[in-house]
């Protein structure tokens, strides 16, 4: 039931604060001795030297955020592969490696094939090459669930809209849980820092609610200008680069507008040639490590007459001057920001598609689970 919402996608966008709360409750039990509980056995990942993640689509974007967290918080080298690529060109076998499959449905053929291949090629090897597989899924009862011994359940609830929204947020939460659990067990993080991050995570549901309450109407108005737009560029850096990819994918999927996501620093290596007054640029510019860089990349876009839409928590004169349109989100530390910065991008894609009168929940050519190769 849509419960008064025009589309399932919008309902699911609005369910995200609740999903984050459910994940917080499941993964972070509020105890100093056991700060994170994912239900995974300690010997499962104590001696890890590397992680490889396979996924497709939006789940692949969540995996890219996951890579950032696993490397920056837990210090474990991590690579992310498309299921469809990995299955035909797998990474050479390495010892003490965890392979993670991320799939909300647990039924995506390419992701399952990649995991199945990994399981098979590691079996029968000496102990150090043993298959260590972890699934991150919204459907523990799925084929993925039957294939692997260890699962992180993402607690998103059933998602009907073909465009993944709340299950993406839930996958991000699973990666915060995993990265923090690993960091804690490997003593890669201080107790204070761990507490600080978990406290920050607990604030996010209210921050998402604030975006929904204060920005949805604004975005609904804003999209009047973009119904005829043919191309969009999304840029971000660091942990927000995958969010730029996700914003572009959402727009492509449901509004059929051509959109690309780039790490902002790459624009000058080619894509900037596309820019003119007809190509808006959405820049994710959160304070932190790369804020100044994103701002200077945005200035370069503005100099090519692109209309600039900023998703940022900075509300100073500089930001107001650079961005033609500014969508504010709460001022959280950079490492937590993807949970907030993706929300305006979901709303932007939704409202453009809805305004164009498109079938938001069942976009053309797409299926909710891609069970064929
Ligand atoms: O069920 P999965 O997470 O494995 O699905 C992977 C992709 O097919 C999926 O994320 C697709 O990209 C969505 N329609 C994105 O909105």
TrEMBL record:
Transmembrane segments: none annotated. Its EC number is 2.6.1.16. This is Glutamine--fructose-6-phosphate aminotransferase [isomerizing]. The keyword Transferase applies. The active site is at residue 368. Residues 40-188, 222-363 form the SIS domain. The keyword S-adenosyl-L-methionine does not apply. The chain holds residues 253 to 625 of 625 of the full protein.
């Amino acid at each position: 039931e849509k419960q008064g919402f025009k589309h399932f996608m919008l309902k699911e966008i609005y369910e995200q604060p609740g999903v984050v709360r459910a994940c917080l409750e499941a993964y972070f039990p509020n105890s100093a001795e056991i700060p994170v509980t994912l239900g995974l056995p300690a010997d499962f990942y104590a001696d890890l030297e590397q992680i490889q993640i396979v996924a497709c689509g939006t789940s692949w974007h969540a995996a890219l955020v996951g890579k950032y967290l696993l490397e920056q918080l837990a210090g474990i080298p991590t690579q992310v592969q498309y299921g469809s690529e990995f299955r035909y060109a797998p990474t050479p076998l390495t010892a003490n490696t965890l392979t993670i499959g991320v799939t909300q449905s647990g039924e995506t053929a390419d992701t399952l094939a990649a995991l199945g291949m990994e399981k098979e090629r590691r079996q029968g090897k000496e102990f150090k090459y043993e298959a260590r597989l972890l699934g991150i899924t919204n459907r523990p009862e799925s084929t993925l669930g039957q294939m692997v011994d260890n699962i992180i359940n993402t607690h998103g609830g059933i998602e009907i809209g073909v465009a993944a929204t709340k299950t993406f947020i839930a996958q991000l939460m699973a990666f915060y849980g995993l990265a923090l659990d690993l960091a804690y067990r490997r003593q890669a993080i201080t107790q204070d820092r761990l507490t600080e991050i978990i406290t920050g995570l607990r604030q996010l549901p209210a921050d998402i609610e604030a975006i929904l309450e204060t920005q949805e109407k604004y975005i609904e108005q804003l999209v009047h200008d973009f119904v005829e737009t043919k191309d969009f560029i999304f840029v971000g850096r660091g942990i927000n680069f995958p969010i730029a990819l996700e914003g572009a994918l959402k727009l492509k999927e449901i509004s059929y507008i051509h959109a690309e996501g780039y790490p902002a620093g790459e624009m000058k290596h080619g894509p900037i040639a596309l820019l003119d007054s007809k190509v808006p640029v959405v820049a994710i510019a959160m304070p932190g490590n790369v804020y100044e860089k994103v701002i200077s990349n945005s200035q370069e876009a503005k100099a090519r007459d692109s209309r600039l839409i900023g998703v940022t928590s900075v509300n100073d004169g500089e930001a107001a001057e650079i961005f033609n349109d500014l969508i504010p989100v709460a001022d959280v530390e950079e490492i937590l920001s993807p949970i907030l910065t993706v929300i305006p991008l979901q709303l932007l894609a939704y409202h453009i598609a809805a305004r164009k009168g498109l079938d938001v929940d069942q976009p053309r050519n797409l299926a909710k689970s891609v069970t064929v190769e």
